[in-house]
Amino acid sequence: MPETDRTRLIASATRRGLGRRVVNPPLERGSTLLSDRAEDMRDASLGPVYGLDGLAPQRALADALAEMEGACRTLLAPSGLSALTTPLLALTRAGDEVVASDAIYGPSRRFLTRFLATRGVTTRFHAPGASPEEIAGFIGPATRLILIESPASLTFEMMDVAALSAVARERGALTVMDNTWAAGLAFKPLQHGVDVSVQAVTKYVAGHSDVLLGAMSVADPTIARALANAVEDLGLHVSPDDAWLALRGLRTLPVRLQAHEKAALRVAEWLERRPEVARVLYPPLPGSEGHPLWSRDYSGAAGLMGVVMRDWDEARAQAFMNRLTLFGLGYSWGGFESLITHETGQLSLRARPPRLEGALLRLHVGLEDPHDLIADLSRAFTE
Ligand SMILES: Cc1ncc(COP(=O)(O)O)c(C=O)c1O
Description:
This protein is of the alpha/beta class.
């Protein structure tokens, strides 16, 4: 039996007993599926009945993700955001409370405070990086769900996910984790007691900045059924072309993620020594705030980090970004390319915005040679 994810993710493509075939599933496209006999038309044991049920590429991707996540079932959604909003919607009802970090991904926060709040589900926000004991103080009789994101968006605080999941379970609350940073590979939420492991497949699994897609992985069949019903009721659909591309990305995810981590650590260590930099927010960096939890729980890392500049204002950050030649100016992350963005007001939406030493940059270290990336950064600092 193959031992590691790196082997398993490829071995699932080459398994025997399926007859002569191409390596990857056929790229089927279709809304309508035809049957030979009227009696067969609704028989799901003969395969999908309608395009919304998912064709070969969507099924193969969901199965491969479920295997990687250790899930009984993985459900696909058309974006990472919809993979987060679907369980929040499916698992709560009016009168329930959600508990989440003040540093969760902005659009997740918007869904909680704009969509769910007007439908009777309220959210309590705890300080980023709070301990499970502190978060326990936010759990009341109405708390139905805890939304975990670790490391957090923009400021990269880590959470003790296993301890928090245990507290939630004890108090009768479910846990949903946005695990996009670890790509479902470097950290396995379901093994740490999380109920729903979510990731934006858009990022590292797809890996080439050409697909938007999300996944929800679940170990408990009852929760899987609730999510599958929501996907069906909402009519969520992922295109076979996008699923096919994501499956192709998934086969090489372990080697790409390792390369991102290795290069990002070099860049982070170099940045940390620059006088212009106040702090590098990257949990794999020894001595950083999140490092103890990262080294205890994670087998790898993403190439995404925050960089707090010493006394820089927005104009200085923008001038620096404009001088870079190898870092694309664009949102998202997880593709092969290096990217840089700067924070422009998202932190002020938090209940307690952090006080930083200066402008906050977000770097995605791609698969270029880290020597070249460092030379580019160095030139942009000194020019
Ligand atoms: C932490 C995190 N979660 C979820 C998402 C949403 O992914 P998508 O763009 O596929 O909706 C993003 C996108 O930037 C993200 O950064």
